[in-house]
Structure formats: structure tokens, C-alpha cells
Amino acid sequence: MQSHQFSTIPADGVDVFYRYAGPVDAPVILLLHGFPSSSHQFQNFIPYLAYHNYRVLAPDYPGFGFTVVPAERKYIYTFDNLSLTIAAFLDALHIQQFALFIFDYGAPIGLRIALDRPDAITAIISQNGNMYEEGLGETWGPMKKYWATDSAEDRAIIRARILSPERTIWQYTAGSPTGEKGVPPESYTLDLALMEREGNREIQLDLFRDYRTNVEMYPRFQAYLRERRPRALAVWGREDRSFVPAGAEAFRRDLENVEVGFVDAGHWALEERGEEVGGQVVEFLGRVLGSSKSGL
């Protein structure tokens, strides 16, 4: 099985780092990562999809991974702006149609792009990528308080609770049937190292605060599903503590043809159950987009 390559490309005044693989004339799959990770989380998934004859693109957002934001750009870290940068990244590569694979932060970023470019979306795969209030687990309590107050005190509480090494490891392992044994340690170790960069924690806190705008946009995302009726697959780790299974089931309310499946995993189902998740994704894409190897 082939590996993947990486590169950078200027887009929206930012040097966007991305990983890629697959034939350039094949159907495009855009992989959108979550917090606190980067395209690194897809390092095994990218060659798997490319093997099945898809062109795979996985960018790092500004503030994540190896994407570089020049100081003179004076970038404001909001989900609106992250979406604009990823849209500019697609334009820089002349990508006009693509399937969305949305995970965690990738959901509000990808769905903003879908609202702006509905005809570009060939399919949507949600792996624990939420767009329903009932999908928000109890762990969101402190974050909701921060949204309401925007106080320095609550910002400090969120910094201590969520941006700690212990919490990052917990995000990867909570709900996993095998605990830390099921998740490669290099995943969260890289995330922790990148968060140590000067100013990065403040970037993450700004995005935590802005996450409230994603919840405010849930009705628009849901209306998009009802009106555009994209082919969709929701495959979730059923033990996710952040985005609970009700968020996957809620897709049925707005999209009657959605396919919903669960695997025995937590939030990072692709890390823990890569073959199982990958199999469901490739089988779905084979039916929706077609591929000469989709049945393998």
C-alpha cells in the first residue's frame, strides 16, 4: 500500500501544510481534522483511501500542525476564518468537487464550506463530527459557562482543565475499551508538543470561545441537510464523551437516507478501530462515488 506525501501551498495569506495521496484525476476526499490534532491523525487513513483510488487531501488549519501563519497576516482565530482559509486552500489546488470527511472541529469548518459551496459536495462522512445540540456531552458544561461569561476567570479554568497534558491524553483514551493501549502515544505526544509553541494556547482558547458560533449555526447546518440531501454516513465511536451517540442518531431527523453506524471506541474511533471505520467509509464511497477497488 502506498504511503502519502506532504507539501505546503499559499492560501489566504497562510502557508497551508497538507498531506496527500492518490491519483490526481480520482474523486477527491477532503479530510478535516479535530482538536488538538492535525492532518497527522490521518497518516494511516490517507494511504488506505488512496489505495482504493481516491485523491485524498488533508490540510492543517491555522494554529494547528505545521501550517504557518505569518505574523504580519494578523490572523484572527475564528471558525469562520478557518473555513475561509480551507476554502482558499481548495481554490489554490483547483478543487471544485469533493467528499467531506468531518471529525470534531472538522464538522463546523466543513459544513461552513458546504453552506457556501453546496454544489461542490459529493458526499459527507461524519466520524464523531457533530451538528446537533443533543450530541454535546456533559463534558461541555465548563465550556458553555465560558461562552456565557467570557471572563478571565473562566478562561483560566478552561486553560487549566483542557489544555493540560492529562486532558489531552484523556481525550484520546476516554471511552476506549483498551485505554491508553489502544492509542499510539505519538498521536497525543505530537499534539502536546505543538501546543507548547509560543502563543498557541491562547489561539486554542480563542477558538474555544468562538465554538459557541458553531452551536448557533447548527440550525443552518441541519437545514442544509434537509434542502440539499447529500449522501451521508455517520460512523461514530459509541463511547465518545464529547460528542455522544445522540448526535449521530439525530442525522436521521434531517436526512432520511443517512447511514448511521457505531464502533466500539471513544472519540478517536479512527485511531482505535481504523480498519473497521475505514471499511465502512470505503464501502459507502464505493456506492456513492465509485472506485475500482471499493469492494476490496
Polypeptide structure, described:
By secondary structure, the chain is of the alpha/beta class. The chain has a domain at 5-137 and 215-288: Rossmann fold (3-Layer(aba) Sandwich), CATH 3.40.50.1820. The chain is built from twelve helices and eight strands. It has helices spanning 45-51, 79-92, 106-116, 141-149, 152-162, 165-173, 185-195, 200-228, 246-249, 251-254, 269-272, 274-288, and strands spanning 5-11, 14-21, 28-32, 55-59, 98-102, 121-126, 232-237, 259-263. It has an eight-stranded mixed sheet with strand order 1-2-4-3-5-6-7-8, sandwiched between helices. Strand 3, helix 1 and strand 4 form a beta-alpha-beta unit. Helix 2 (79-92) crosses helix 3 (106-116), helix 4 (141-149) packs antiparallel against helix 5 and helix 6 (165-173) runs antiparallel to helix 7 (185-195). The two termini are 13 Å apart. The model has no long low-confidence stretch (mean pLDDT 95).
